[in-house]
Model the fold of this input.
Amino acid sequence: MPINPAEFERLVAEALDSLPERFAELLDNVVVVVEEEPTASDRDVLEHSHSELLGLYRGTPMTRRTYDSFRLPDQIAIFRGPILRVTRGAGEAKQQIRETVIHELGHYFGLDDDEMVF
Done:
């Protein structure tokens, strides 16, 4: 059963709401958005062209930020189409959404892919 866009956004919000308070309190100047598909330039981050891009962090990690000037918010994009293609059923999609949100937040906090479990 496919997950409609509104339900998908609700699951992303639920994943954010489930963050431990000590991490949620550290989120500053970052927005999480749901996009249907990654753009061609988004996909450039993939090592293998046949892979699906489930999410993407667009911004400057906290570990490299300076606060001496105005900046637009960083952005975490969660891609609905790819997540639904790699999962089977609502339960698996819900888990993948949560893992993707946490993974991209890891980049926000300055972690590289090899430093994260997700």
Summary: The chain has a mean pLDDT of 89.
